[in-house]
Design a protein that fits this description.
Elements: H1 5-25, E1 28-36, E2 40-47, H2 55-70, E3 76-79
Parallel strand pairs: 2-3
Antiparallel strand pairs: 1-2
Helix pairs in contact: 1-2
């Protein structure tokens, strides 16, 4: 099943909404920058998450896993510094 880019964006935003409370509890946040080719999500970690030593682990395990759960066609999640 192919989603429109609007549907895909809505699914990714839904995933970010699920993650956001955990990041905000640590003084951080995350925002969606873009979705490229329907397979690559670019996000920006904000606040306390910037420069945090665990943010790469958080991004890969938590963020990428949650986004893929909502939008299985996503192949990668990239953090823009």
């Amino acid at each position: 099943m192919n989603m429109t880019s609007e549907e895909l964006r809505a699914k990714v935003e839904l995933a970010l909404e699920e993650i956001r409370p955990f990041l905000q509890s640590d003084g951080g946040d995350i925002s969606l920058v873009s979705i490229d080719n329907g397979t690559s999500v670019k996000v920006k970690l904000e606040g306390a998450c910037v420069g945090c030593t665990v943010n790469q682990m958080t991004l890969k395990s938590g963020v990428e896993m949650t986004i893929k759960k909502h939008a299985p066609q996503i192949e990668e999640v990239v953090n823009l510094d």
